[in-house]
Amino acid sequence: MRATDNLAGGRLTIDRDAIAANWSLLKGLLKPGTTCAATIKADAYGTGATSTAQRLWEAGCTTFFVALPEEGALVRSALPDATVYVLGGLFPGTASDLAGANLIPVLNSVAEVREWAGFCKAESRAFPAALQLNTGMNRLGMDPEEFADVMAQKELTGSFDIALLMTHLACGSDPEHPLNRQQLNTFVAATQPFSTLPRSMANSAGVFLGPDYHFDLARPGISLYGGKALDTAPNIMSPVAMVEARVMQIRNVPKGQTIGYGGAETVTRDSKIALVAAGYADGLHRRAGSSDDRPGGFGVIDGHKVPLIGRVSMDMIALDVTDVPGEAVTRGSFVEMLGPNVAASDLAAYAETIDYEYLTGLGRRYHRRYAALPAPQER
Ligand SMILES: *Cc1c(COP(=O)(O)O)cnc(C)c1O
């Protein structure tokens, strides 16, 4: 531990080798010939975009997806030879910035296609772009009719290099959802006339939905970071991030008194409470707090599961450590709030959110280090 780590409330450990191992596992699930790319938007889901991209590159990943042009520029500075797609599309007037940084926009509308085509014509150079189809999610992308129309206009699509045709699943986390098959059929029908062009549909969930969904390239995100892609199956990915926060004080609270703001939770026995230096400003969602009406999230200390008690404050939480032996929890001890013993998806469920939001919102106050995570503690 660095000396200054003593000054931080908590530490965030990122296991880059685990991210690489998750990528290899996903790649092994894909049908032969399918490229496994990596989605590293939002600072690689909180793990650090450039360091994660570099580690994945070492593992053999050469294609990356980011959300914003700015994120793409950052990845480009770390990996000069990687293929980098920008999912957010072409922001007005930014074609030369993207092409200059060797970034590939995902063109999501006819207006974007026109702008990219105009730029390529003016430069007399067929820069690459992906085309996204809306197959039912109704987020970004061209409707199949618009796509067909654009493809028929050679003066538009003839002026640039179509590197990828893609679409995105709305309900992939639920394998039984009828929209999955419907989107697949729409995508196949729309792209069939151009099936020599590389196609991509699968996010993490799509990888698990099976080979029909794999096409030429998959672009998993959450599974790389140990998250849960399918709602209905156990998670086979390894955790890659661990949050540990420091115990600042241990307090005995007599039965019948309340803890924290709003007096939201009354202790029902004489209790030993640990005040821990991480709160909602560190990404521990306020909704994960506990009250007399509703249980909250938990942490793990020395293999003991310790529940939150009362509301989550900005800078701290209270944990019920009554059942933890005295020597296992003292002033200065660290409590795991995310990691091998506390799945992001479990914690997220208490806050009525998803592990994606937990990971991307971990906050800026943790001291960050890159190291292997310990094995889970059984107790
Ligand atoms: C975020 C995103 C992905 C990755 O999704 P995961 O569910 O994290 O695997 C892939 N494609 C698009 C278009 C996305 O927005």
What does this protein look like?
Strands 3-4-5-6-7-8-9 form a 7-stranded parallel beta sheet. Strands 1, 11, 14, 17, 18 and 19 form a 6-stranded mixed beta sheet that branches. It has a two-stranded parallel ribbon with strand order 2-10. Helix 3 (49-59) packs across helix 4. The chain is of the alpha/beta class. It contains 12 helices and 19 strands. The radius of gyration is 24 Å and the shape is elongated. Helix content is 28%, strand content 21%. It folds into 2 domains: 31-225, Alanine racemase (TIM Barrel, Alpha-Beta Barrel), CATH 3.20.20.10; 241-370, Lyase, Ornithine Decarboxylase, Chain A, domain 1, CATH 2.40.37.10. The mean pLDDT is 96. The site of pyridoxal-5'-phosphate has 11 residues, from helix 10. Pyridoxal-5'-phosphate is lined by residues 39, 41, 87, 168, 203-205, 219-222. It catalyses: L-alanine = D-alanine. This is Alanine racemase. GO terms for molecular function: alanine racemase activity. Belongs to the alanine racemase family.
Strand order of the largest sheet: 3-4-5-6-7-8-9
CATH architecture of the largest domain: Alpha-Beta Barrel
Largest sheet: 7 strands, parallel
Number of helices: 12
CATH topology of the largest domain: TIM Barrel
Small molecules in complex: pyridoxal-5'-phosphate
Radius of gyration: 24 Å
Q: End-to-end distance, in Å?
A: 27 Å
| Percentage of residues assigned to helices | 25-40%
Q: Give the overall shape.
A: elongated
Low-confidence blocks of residues: none
The CATH superfamily label of the largest domain reads Alanine racemase
Report mean pLDDT, rounded to a whole number: 96
**Total domain modules:** 2
Number of strands: 19
Structural class by SSE content:
alpha/beta
